[in-house]
Amino acid sequence: MSLEFRSVSYMHPGDRSGGVSDVSFQVGRGELVALMGPSGSGKSTLLQLAAGFLEPRLGTIWLGATELTRTPAVERDFGVVFQAYALFPHMSIAENVEFPLRARGVPRLERSRRVLETLARVGLADLADRRPESLSGGQQQRAALARAIVFDPRALLLDEPLSAVDGRLRQSLRDEIKAIQAVTDAPCLLVTHDAEDALSIADRVAVLVDGRLRQIGTPAEVYDRPVDATVARFTGPVNAIEAVALDAHTVRTAAGSLRCDHGRAVGTTMTLLLRPERIHLSQSPDAEPANRLVFESVDTVRVGGMFESHGRIAKLKVMARSFERPSTQTNWTVPPDAIWAVDPERFT
Fold it and tell me: 142 and 40, same structural domain?
């Protein structure tokens, strides 16, 4: 069954921030949708509306053919993983995972079987008798996930589940969340402020800005073809360049003419979006590729396995990323299909 928001609006009493306005989208069966957006954009509000902790002012929420808008949270049978995990400190991990089964009146032997199976799935079978305070942040996160899925929830709601972990453990837990969610076959809504988390594990990404759904699509669509510069900036580093159409395939910028298929009439102003990793070091100084540019590097730092360079192309401030360290003045090329045109921003 799918989880669906239909024209949902909610405003927090006495607070204009954090609400949502006329939001509509669907999370399919077995699908993981990541909600992204800046602080106060309405991500957690949507999750609480889905869980039943808040009630929409307008619109409806559905699970399959059943409307849940006024259904109490306890009757929705959703698995929820809170940002702080909310494990009971006086209970062992096994008792924490067993708790929702006990609350639902599941017989003791069946409870024991399900708890053991679920702890094994998340790699905590050997820690069943431990208390939460003795576990690492990653282990507590897995215990919270186990508690959320042990009763076969009809939907899974995750609120910033990776905010307490980083590094290699973060990557490992991303994989675990995706694997566990796939096994449950339930619709999953994940709230995150981290673009890397969303783009790496989500089937689709929904970007909220000022309480409105700005774009929803696959990670590739949202990253490579954002609807505007705001979405582009929130999903990763991007160069935003003011341009005017000279013809159907050429624009004028402060760095000179560039070739790109922008689809706008001659004389139209626009914003060009260019990801820094799509700017390529020229291999041959004698070649004549489209969009050859001279980049004057001001500062270059290593970011993971790449070099990030900040500098100028003519009058434009530009960021570029490459696997080779560029010299102070370097020839770069920009493939025309790497440039994405959107409606113009207000430039200052």
Answer: yes
Taking each helix axis from N to C terminus, what angle separates 137-149 and 167-184, rounded to the nearest 10 degrees? 10
DSSP category for residue 53: S
Q: List the one residue out of 167, 214, 169 whose CA is nearest residue 35.
A: 214
Q: Which amino acid is at 293?
A: L
Contact 122, 173 (CB under 8 A): no
Does one domain contain both 158 and 268? Answer: no
Question: For the chain, how far is it from start to end, CA to CA, in angstroms?
Answer: 48
Residue 90 lies in a domain: yes
Is the pLDDT reported for residue 167 higher than 70?
A: no
Q: Which helix (H) or strand (E) holds 281?
A: strand 280-281
User: Where does a domain end: 203, 231, 259?
Assistant: 231
Dihedral Cα 186, 46, 43, 23, nearest 10 deg: 100
The range of the structural domain enclosing residue 94 comes to 3-231
- Is the same domain home to 212 and 120? yes
Of 231, 264, 288, the residue at which a domain comes to its end is 231
Residue type, 161: P
Q: Are both 189 and 275 inside the same structural domain? A: no
d(CA 207, CA 88): 33
212 and 254, same domain (yes or no): no
* Separation of alpha carbons 40 and 98, rounded Å: 34
**CB proximity list for 4: less than 8 A, separation 6 or greater:** 25, 26, 27, 61, 62, 63
Has residue 333 been placed in a domain? yes
Q: Mind spelling out the 3-state secondary structure of 222-269?
A: HHHCCCCHHHHHHHCCCEEEEEEEEECCEEEECCEEEECCCCCCCCCE
Q: What is the pTM of this model?
A: 0.86
29-64 pLDDT tens trace: 999 999 998 888 899 999 999 999 999 999 999 999
